[in-house]
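May I ask you for just one protein sequence along with its backbone structure tokens in two labelled lines?

_____
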Amino acid sequence: MLHLSFTLLLALVLGDSLGAAFPPDALKKSFSLSKYQFPVPHELKAVQKMKEQFEDIMLLSDRKCNTRLFHRKWNTAELSVADRVMLVEAELELTTTMLELPAIPAFAETRQRPLTFLTQVREDLRGWMATEAPSHQPSGKLRHWLQKLQTAKKTETIGCLEASAILHLFQVLNDLRCAALQEQCT
């Protein structure tokens, strides 16, 4: 019994001293984006399969979309790392929102794996922004694009936003790779 009490007391003392040695902020989660420099091949294959199936569905519809949301006059590499992360986070927010919409059963099944992957990426980017650049304000280029995105969300049809998000998924993944490099990218 004495041994158990001594062990418990020792654990409490050590716990207090370790708590003082490592303030709570020092133990916060670290977010590394390096794993997104080269996404896992099976994730890329799932995204490619979903994109191809969506293109087949698009051939059967007569959607006329004029949105040029993903056509920019600047390159992602021109942005700061924090701007790149913020850009990809916004792109993924649109994409995951569109992938969560009701769909025909075959497409709903095909998009589950990419949706899970892209949702995880978006959460990792949010965590990175919260820890690495919590007070970052977007540059003029990015701010203009974010305003364009907000306008498109209000003025474009859901079908056009969905098509734009899915058909440009590999551009989003390239932007992600660029953000993960945290240096000059091409």
